Amino acid sequence: MKRTLPLIIVFSCGFFMIIAFFVPLRGFQDVSQTFQNWYTGVIAFFVFIGIFNLVKVNLDKIQRRLRDWQYSIILLAFLSMMMAAGFIGGREGGIFLYMFENLQIPLGATMFSLLAFFVGSAAFRAFRARTPEATLLLVAAVLVMIGRVPVGYWIWHGFPSLVEWIMNVPNTAAKRGILFGADLGLISMALRVLLGIERSYMGGGKE
Amino acid sequence: MLALLIIVALGIEVRAFDTPNDDGSSITITWTADTSYHSFEILRGTHPDEGLHTVCEVEAPRNTFVDSQIQQGVGYFYKVMARGFDAEPTSQTVGPVKAVAQIFNTGRVNIAVCILVLFSAIIYYITRARRGEKLYVRRIPGITAIEEAIGRATEMGKPVLYVPGIMDIDEPETIASMSILGRVAEKTAQYNTTLYVPTSKAMVMSMAQQVVKESATKVGRPDWFNVDNIRYLTDDQFGYVSAVDGIMVREKPATNFYLGKFYAESLILAETGFSTGAIQIAGTALPDQLPFFVAACDYTLLGEELYAASAYLSQEPVQLGSLKGQDFGKLIFILVIVIGVILRLFNSVFFTDWFQVR
């Protein structure tokens, strides 16, 4: 029963949603929408579980003086500050918005900007022409880079058009091929889950 | 001036009909008229000669209006009046038109056929596998390397890091990731290797805890399971990235898995993992992120391989049968594409148009 009931729920809800995609009757659409609303409700509830887990893990770390426990104090202090600011002044104004705009956004932007350096280091490794495929990648990448900057047009007027062709034809074809395979894989996995063949997301095993 | 009068005298031709493939909540009105008018006024009533009132005015050159402010089953009459000249021509009144609910969306019959073909192929091969037939499935290096990578971490006495993406459990990639996590947890529990699963969504954390716990119990190692190793960090994309990077730099895991849905953080994670010297296996279905993983990781599961990984790892005949069915479906669709390309070369569009999703 421990596994049968979840499997029955997955099977009936999954197939109902597939049927609702093809049946425009209001009753079907209403039930389908209700399922999606329930999901939103469950997500809202899980915010509390997430915060509870965060506080529990970090309090435990502080109590047991585990490695780098001082960072947990900073985390919990800022978590409490942001929550208090939100409850007192609301999301739209006051200290909450100030901290969001002047702490969280710049910190996020800092992490994001690291991407520029990581692209450089990853490209350096990826573009080493050790095999014919890697050489092809290197040539294509150099052409695209030159064609995307004004100096490329200055060297040869045909560069931008060549880059457009590389991006729109071979690149798009490869991307669509991957998407096509991924979608087929997705349908196959969905069927395995719906029929109860794939159970490892429930910890696997049989009845 | 004479030309203008001729245009006005041409009038407006109107057509009103029940909107196809809907729940009976609307009527569609289309008209053909000279494009020099500024706008068109749509009038509606339940009698052809009296009580017609304006329901909407649309700007030219638009020539379609979907009237959803109606009652199902009631007959309505429509008239269109053009605006823009001194003389404002009015169409003939058309109707009565009733909105009726459709049971099946015929615009999606192509999708239904494709799903049925694929489902049939998968079920056919699953049945063959159930009968005990041996099915060959091609070797996927990224998946076969998973056990080797966990073994490496065990030998080095270091933990394994499993990142299930940054999206919630409603994403197919995350569900696929949870299935692989089950297999990874079985191996790490067997080898008594620490497994960290930092999550960006609380629901994913809850599911991951359950998956890892069940897997540990399945291999007879319930004592290995530590709930604090599968923890929620933050919903914020780059906050999550910095926290996971911190785990990589501090704990120095020997093996990193990035399996799920990733966006801009993919390369930040993979490059940080590379700098710590970890063996890295990644997988996602988003083509825009795959090049980053290919450049920075040792193995990458491309699109469909991510969804196939759990079935492949299980080596259960029934699951392998589903992969075989998927490959057969792929063959059918390749043939359909080739036929479509050939027909388009001969300027025939009916076949490719049939596949258009409405």
Structural account:
The complex is a heterodimer of chains A (207) and B (358). Chain A has a domain at 116-198. Chain A is 82% helix and 0% strand. Chain A has helices at residues 4-22, 26-63, 69-89, 94-126, 132-147, 150-155, 159-194. In chain A, helix 5 crosses helix 7 (159-194). In chain B, a hairpin with a 7-residue loop joins strand 3 and strand 4 (53-59). Residues 1-9 of chain B have low confidence and may be disordered. Chain B has eleven helices and 13 strands. Chain B folds into three domains: 4-97, Immunoglobulin-like (Sandwich); 106-125 and 319-354, no CATH class; 135-315, Response regulator (Rossmann fold, 3-Layer(aba) Sandwich), CATH 3.40.50.2300. Chain B is elongated. Chain B has 358 residues and is of the alpha/beta class. In chain B, helix 4 runs parallel beside helix 9, helix 6 (237-251) packs parallel to helix 7 (265-275) and helix 9 (304-314) runs antiparallel to helix 10 (317-345). Chain B has a six-stranded parallel β-sheet, with helices on both faces. The interface between A and B is large, with 61 and 89 residues.
Question: What's the helix and strand layout?
Answer:
The complex is a heterodimer of chains A (207) and B (358).
Chain A: H1 4-22, H2 26-63, H3 69-89, H4 94-126, H5 132-147, H6 150-155, H7 159-194
Helix pairs in contact in A: 2-3, 3-4, 5-7
Chain B: H1 2-9, E1 13-18, E2 27-32, E3 39-45, E4 53-59, E5 64-67, E6 76-83, E7 94-97, H2 109-130, H3 141-156, E8 160-165, H4 172-191, E9 195-199, H5 202-218, E10 230-232, H6 237-251, E11 255-261, H7 265-275, E12 279-284, H8 290-296, E13 299-302, H9 304-314, H10 317-345, H11 350-354
